[in-house]
Amino acid sequence: MLADPVALSSHLEADPTAATSAVGGLAPLLVLLRRSTGSPADVRGGVRLLLDAGADPDSHTIERDGQGRMSALFDAVERGDLALVRLLLERGATRDEDAFYHACEQSDTAFLDALHAPGFEGMVNHRLDFEDAAGLAWFLGRGVDVDAHRCLHHAISRGRGLPIITLLLDAGADVNLAWDRWDVGRRPLALAARCGHLAAYELLRSRGATADLDPVDAAVLAVARGESVRLPTAAPPSLGNPQTDDYGWILGQFALLGRTDVVRALLDSGMSVDTRGWSNFTPLDQAAMYGRAETVRLLIERGADLHDCAFDTEGPTPLDCAVWGLRSNRAGDGDYPGTVAALLAAGAPTRYVPPSGDEAVDALLVR
Predict the structure, then answer these.
(1) Which helix (H) or strand (E) holds 115?
(2) Pairing assessment for the beta strands 60-63 and 68-71 based on DSSP bridges
(3) In 15-108, where does DSSP find H-type helix?
(4) What's the Rg (C-alpha) of the chain?
(5) CB of 16 within 8 A of CB of 54?
(6) Per-residue pLDDT averaged across 283-293, rounded?
(7) pLDDT digits 0-9 by tens, 79-89
(8) Which residue in 191, 195, 221, 340 has the fewest CB atoms around it within 10 Å?
């Protein structure tokens, strides 16, 4: 569905009630925001016309069995259109938690500025689901209590890089604080061992962290150090990973951390190259998202699925993950041109078109 402001203007002039009459159970404003394939400028033009004609800027649907609220603001964030977000706010849209939560997935902190309301800074851990030091700094600048939210634990479990972990430590995160959720009672040092995050483990030790490692912690740490390929039988320590006890999720964790040596050793030991991890991503998805070109090349050589769609048939392919990572989840040490080049050479598909935010990547995508 295209957004055609001229045609919409004529339609509203002929029938002013069209701005408020549901279309297939959806408010017209939501139909435009969710289904239009028009340009951002044309979508904004259509939104202005609908709002001028009486459309409710707080139009929304209730999702996830009543647990979620998908508002017009949410849809504007989904489109990645900051000007559209501001337009809706100017016209009276109410800032809501679901829209702000979704804004945490955008690399531009201006979305957070626009959508923040008191208390929303408590969503800091969702920002830590992504490799975004600037986004974390935004939350820290608003005085978020990193210990109350157990931010250090969350960052470790998600495989965040040392710049982000260092930001948390410099903000006063307690290196010996026990986790109060998910893997209750575990200290950061033991969690780093259990998550195979060797760099975080060594940094925490240098900052005075201590912990008694249990057999699972010790087994995974040995794998991270290249001393073993024997993974423990245990559930993952954090939510979002497959709830199995084979510890297969850790292959994707090593992939996103760029631990090509460990990934190779685990594959040589018999692990499936497409073992799923966090959010149902494959190791190739995760390596691509973080620009781990060497790991990506290894996984391609070992037969990783180039066409896999992580969540469902509409989910991202590995090459989609690389371009999205470049735009919204950019690891400072990631080699995104090398990653994209390797995937394209192997025949990986993508739905993304330039601009990606990186000229070298754009040049590869238009070949």
Answers:
(1) helix 110-115
(2) antiparallel
(3) 28-35, 40-52, 72-78, 82-90, 97-103
(4) 22
(5) yes
(6) 97
(7) 999 999 999 99
(8) 221
